[in-house]
């Protein structure tokens, strides 16, 4: 066999292997098809947008179902209307199993014309006022054809339908929760800048199933809300990033210390006030500087409370009023509050538990704290996080200032304006995050600016290390890299 023929055969084999190989999960094609799957099923199946469905299905559709037989486009639409879309108050919905998706490109003479997508999806019955009821699981394979830059579904296989079983991810997560005596988990997934999934697992109190709209206390995840409220005021020219706060308010404990004149919104948002986390940690239970403001980083709830009082005095409005107008309303947050107000639905509250799984008495707060105690749902805070990912309607300069490395904490770890920033990932991606921790409370909000992916984790217990490890290393975008940096 001559060398030229051998070379030709090797090129042909390499080409075949390339076509058969699934694309990397961080590739543009994978992300595009993942988004296509998410939008297609959310709008077409979950929301019953039949006009959208019509535009994204081939006239020659072939749908193979292991229970429902072979369906063409007409039969498929008839069955969708009859079995999926007749009752919006009680209807089937579909959710993709995290991490199950694979994408295989289809080429014709080197030109991409389609893709094969496979994965696992779970089906639920969604009824108003009740948690989603998981009914079945199945595998799927979909052929997407690219026509004039639009992805069209041409062939579908839906098979291996079976009842929920103990080795599914949902039960894996609930087993980890039970093993570590944490009753509930709230999980929000953001993909390409959109909140695409809200999952709530477990129970409110070891007995009552935690609903979709469970209310969690999220501790220091209050701070990003107040930080954005402050940045909105700055962006509107109503407050200066370097504006002295003493012109609006001075804490009586430090009024004789001239260093109070150095305090600004920027020093608060970057945790450089010189304050302790809380004054009650001092023997005297009074507020005092522990170092010169602006010289180093020290995490401080007192700083955020100082900022709140200064802003409230300047504008004659409460932080609740300011946050509602500047953050809650534009972000689409309708079920979030700073304290146990009259609208608080206690029947949806996730009770808090210690490391031994013993219930911690609920302490109800009746005034706002800028650093802690926010009460919210996964959907609400997920909407907030998506709003931030997409710029929060801030000017580009101020948004980039928020993400700037204002203070170095350690290698690859920085603090911006209200957010921690982690670098050192496998490419130019970086993470922007904030955590929350109180007795019986653990929370994380995180996003990746380049991909615009992110997620929320809300937990109502203390024994959480193994739960974070399970979620990050096995289920969440770049979670293993994040876990390895802990």
UniProtKB/TrEMBL annotation:
Query: From what organism does this protein derive?
Result: Planktosalinus lacus
Annotated DUF4440 domain ranges read 41-153
Signal peptide from the UniProt entry: 1-21
What InterPro entries does UniProt report for this protein, alphabetically?
A: AmpC-like, Beta-lactam-related, Beta-lactam/transpept-like, DUF4440, NTF2-like_dom_sf
Q: Which residues form the Beta-lactamase-related domain?
A: 173-464
Which Pfam families does the record associate with it? Beta-lactamase, DUF4440
Question: Mind telling me what this protein is named?
Answer: Serine hydrolase
- SUPFAM superfamilies, per this entry? beta-lactamase/transpeptidase-like, NTF2-like
UniProt keywords (A-Z) are:
Signal
Organism domain of life: Bacteria
